[in-house]
Amino acid sequence: MRRFAALLAALLLAVVLAPAAAAEETGHLTGTLPSGARWVADVPESWNGTIILYSHGFGPLEPQNAPDADTARALLADGYALVGSSYSGPSLWALESAVRDQFGALAALEARIGPAHRTLAWGTSMGGLVSALEAEDARHRIDGALTTCGLVGGALNLNNYQLDGEYALSRLLAPGQDVKLVRYGSQDEANAAAATLAGITSAAQATPAGRARIALAAALMNVPTWYTGDTAPRDYETQEQQQEQALTQFVLGFVLSGRYQVELAAGGNSAANAGVDYRALLERSSHAPQVKALYRRAGLDLQADLAALTRDADVKADPRAVATLARTSVPTGRIRVPELTIHTVADQLVPVEQENWYGRLVTGAGRGQLLRQAYVEGTGHCAFRPAETIAALHALEFRVSTGIWTDPHTGRYVPFAVPPLTGARR
Q: Could you tell me if 214 and 240 are in contact, meaning their C-beta atoms sit under 8 angstroms apart?
């Protein structure tokens, strides 16, 4: 208790002593970068000298400077200036340009309002990968990074474990139906594949065998067992129902249609499963006990299914696409500023297991003292309350000001042991 009181006193002192800044311009500001990316900023009249450089997630290339309107209002009321860019593409997977455009937006804003006393990067989802990459910047243009529901496992791991789950659904639930999983020729083709696979999965839910195989695919894809409701389900059957709902109502439609955009950015397919041992993958999954129990109850031979998946796996990646994503869309772990990552414990789109992989990466790069990871007991992708993300921002500011990490205490933050990322190839 005394240590927390001392930390709180140090934080209050840091806030009191933080100099205010007189912005040369205030209000709502916009502009266009040489790349064609647009940027938007909001600067309060009583600017506290800190700029938040916000990176938005996968979606339309529109400029955004906060995760939502409520958070923006709260930050502006506290004196923060907010800025973010649209990114310049060329596809919605804009990692080729995002970091450059974000720093361009920051420079453009400072040219209008004067230099910041402190700059903090804040990224959401795909934008969380952007903020993690910004934390590696050698030019020290930011002082800290807040990565929320971030895709910190990188694009190559993401594409591979998603392919594992999709392949298991297609191969085990509809072996006679040719569902295209990679190398899409158009967005319509990707959307059609998503709809087909979701339909196959929904139909399979009607039988014990189908449910067992859906659970296997969900395990390979790191799909959590909690999708809806106030508390996580405890029995395997209900957990599988939640996984099936997540897959058919949300995940498959987003992932397969999104893969077309990733392939556009990469110049080909980066996912591969040829040579993968699916028995070994399942054994490393935290969901293995659930899968084994459901297979026993259905009277199915799990080892036969895993052997078939291993034998028939034949998707190979395009080396150029792998190289492109390795260069643009995979963190190195060599962060240069303090970084706080936060995640819900049940994130259907960017599984919390990515934090395990990222924590090991940063520690392996010798930068573990710069990283803190915190977890919210909730379900959903980026399903944070504004108070929870703002508490995380203040925890990051405390680390930047004092050199000491303290955990966010507002809302649903809990201790959480993150399982390993199933299907990681890197």
A: yes
| Secondary structure of residue 22 in the 3-state scheme | coil
Are 359 and 327 spatial neighbours (Cβ–Cβ below 8 Å)?
no
Q: In this structure, what are the phi and psi dihedrals at residue 77, rounded to the nearest 5 degrees?
A: -65, -30
Name the residue among 286, 303, 154 with its Cα closest to residue 221.
286
Which tokens hold the place of 157? Answer: 């791991």
The token duo for 188 is: 């319509």
- Average pLDDT rounded to a whole number, residues 319-325: 98
Q: Mapped to the 3 state alphabet, what secondary structure does 297-337 carry?
A: HHCCCHHHHHHHHHHHCCCCCCHHHHHHHHHHCCCCCCCCC
Exposed/middle/buried for residue 16 (C-beta within 10 Å: 0-12, 13-18, 19+): exposed
Residue 28 β-bridge partners: 42
CA atoms of 244 and 225, how far apart (whole Å): 9
Amino acid in the structure at residue 41? A
Phi and psi angles of residue 264, each rounded to the nearest 5 degrees, phi first: -60, -45
Q: Are 78 and 66 in contact (CB under 8 A)?
A: no
Judge if pTM exceeds 0.70: yes
The single-letter DSSP state of residue 333 is S
8 A C-beta contact, residue 246 and residue 223: yes
Number of H helices, E strands in the chain: 15, 9
Tell me how far apart the alpha carbons of residues 138 and 153 are, in angstroms, rounded to a whole number: 21
Tens digits of per-residue pLDDT, 221-246? 999 999 999 999 999 999 999 999 99
pLDDT tens digits for 365-416? 999 999 999 999 999 999 999 999 999 999 999 999 999 999 998 899 999 9
Which residue is listed with tokens 């900023």?
41
Closest among 367, 366, 370, 371 to 355, alpha carbons compared: 371
Q: For 72-82, how does the pLDDT look when each residue is reduced to its tens digit (9 = 90+)?
A: 999 999 999 99
For the chain, the first-to-last Cα distance in angstroms comes to 42
User: In the structure encoding, which two tokens stand for residue 221, read together?
Assistant: 């894809």
314 — alpha (psi -120 to 50), left (phi > 0) or beta? alpha
Mean pLDDT of 31-47: 98
